[in-house]
Structures are given as structure tokens and as C-alpha cells.
Amino acid sequence: MTGWRSSDMPDQHGRTAVVTGANSGLGLITARELARRGARVVLACRSEERGREAEERIRAALPGADVEYRALDLGDLSSVREFAAGYPYERLDLLIDNAGVMALPRGRTADGFETQFGVNHLGHFALTGLLMPKVLNTPGARVVSVSSAMHALANVDMGDLNSEHRYRRWIAYARSKTANLLFVHELARRLTAAGSDVVAAAAHPGYAATNLQTAGPRMEGRRSAERFMRVGNRVFAQSALAGALPTLYAATARGVRPDSFTGPGPVGWRGAPAPSWRASWTRDDVAGERLWVASEQLTGVVYEGLPH
């Protein structure tokens, strides 16, 4: 995988992709590069204004690109259901569960879930489940979840999924990213048990310069923290394009294995896509099944076509 670049992606003509959070940062780059290689890309974004703007930006950069905005708010399960019900295509080759929030002040989704767990994990769990019939009916399809090296800070707390007992923003973020990896682990296991060739894989961007780092401090008016994050992005981070490469690799490269975890470089901070270290608890079969069952109960979404 040494030196793998977006130009190394196989041709994507005839394939359809959904990219969540495609209005900015890693999601925008991921959507743009898939469109560059010929994919039809659905930009699944919460903000119509920013989603339409992203659509225009991609078309300006790539005349003739097949991209379209569709509304999706991962913090509202009714929006997730509306998106899935309105998905207009018979096939879904690539589902890129990219959107996320990081280290926000305590908050709740429309359905009452802690924001980071609700958006980063439960919203994507529900979306993937509702679109699973399309995925299963598409030969060679892939589901890619974007996690983080920060998952190493904390395992999920099955007794306190909503951080009711104590809320620490970075721990809550880490738990949501561990949940992403446990989800991929359990999804890959269930796909194999069903005899499906669908690949469920995970990726992380390392330290990439996006607006994710500054969102939390900006929401709270912590200007010094926001400035600190901006300086870090300028001095230490790699570009958003470099940060998107592990996701693009997991989504399109040949030979990607189920339940793999791709990150940047050997140290997981920056560099070309490579196999990434992950905490042992993210491959725990018992934890994966427990989180899956809890997620079904919380979202009301049961995966059709997969063993229970």
C-alpha cells in the first residue's frame, strides 16, 4: 500500500456511493474523488445550504460529475428513515459512514441520545441497517465506517451508553469511535455468516486539517481553545485530501479485507494508507453483539437479510 494515492483508485463508473457529511472536510474530499473516478455520489448532509454548495463545488471542479445532495440528519432518526425511504437507486455499491462530531459540550439528539454516541454511532447504525437491502443486492458492495485513533482512549460503557453518570467530552468521543469499530466487527461477522461478499471495513484519517477540531470550542465560545486547534491544524496536521485517503482506500482498493482498519502511515498520524493498530476491545465478539442488540433496541432498526 506504500504511496497509494487517490489516482490509484480503480474506475468507479457504474457504481453508486453515499457519503455522509459530504458538505465539508473529509466527506467532501471523499465524495469529490469518487466522482472524479466516475461514481454517482449522493451527498448526504444535514444542512441543505451547505449540501447544495458542496454539490456546486464538485461540479465546478469536475464538469459533468454525477453528484446530488439529499437531506440527512444523523441526529434525528426520523430524518434517517426519510433518507433511506427516499433513496432512489436499485444499487448501493459504497456506503461511506463518514459524518461525525467531536468533543462537543453535553447535548442530546432529537431522540434523546447523547450527541456524540447518537450521531457518530446510532445514526449510522440505523442508516446502514435501513439501506442494507440495497447493499446486499449489489455485488461487491462495501460499507466503510470512519473511526479514529482516539478510540484508544476508552471502550464503550454498556451500562452507560448515553453518558448519564458522568460526561467527559473526549471520553464520550472515544467511546463513539470504539462503537464504530465494534459495529464494523459485528457487521463483518454477520455478513460472513450470511454468505455475503459485502465488505465491512473501517478507516481513520490520522490528524487531518478539517473543521471537526474547532466545532466544539466554537460552540462554547472558547476562543483560546479554538485558536489552539487552528494552530495545530496549520502546523501539525496533514491535508484533508491526505486524511481522506484511508477511507478511499478502504472503499475502493483491491484486496481490502472485512473488518480491516486502515489509517495513515505506520504511526497512524500521517502518511499513505496502511493497516492501523486498533485496541483489542474493538474485536470483542461478545461486546460487538451486545452493542448491536442495544443499538437495535435504541433505534428500532433490525437488519434485514442478516442473521440475528
UniProtKB/TrEMBL annotation:
| One of the Pfam families matching this protein, by short name | adh_short
Which InterPro entries does the UniProt record give?
A: NAD(P)-bd_dom_sf, SDR_fam
Key word Cell membrane present:
no
The entry's keywords: Oxidoreductase
Oxidoreductase among keywords: yes
Question: What Gene3D superfamilies is this protein classified in?
Answer: NAD(P)-binding Rossmann-like Domain
What PANTHER family does UniProt report for this protein, alphabetically?
PHOSPHATIDYLINOSITOL-GLYCAN BIOSYNTHESIS CLASS F PROTEIN, PHOSPHATIDYLINOSITOL-GLYCAN BIOSYNTHESIS CLASS F PROTEIN-RELATED
Q: Which NCBIfam families did the record assign?
A: PRK06197.1
**Family indicated by similarity:** Belongs to the short-chain dehydrogenases/reductases (SDR) family.
- What is the protein's given name? SDR family NAD(P)-dependent oxidoreductase
What is the species listed in this Swiss-Prot or TrEMBL entry?
Streptomyces katsurahamanus
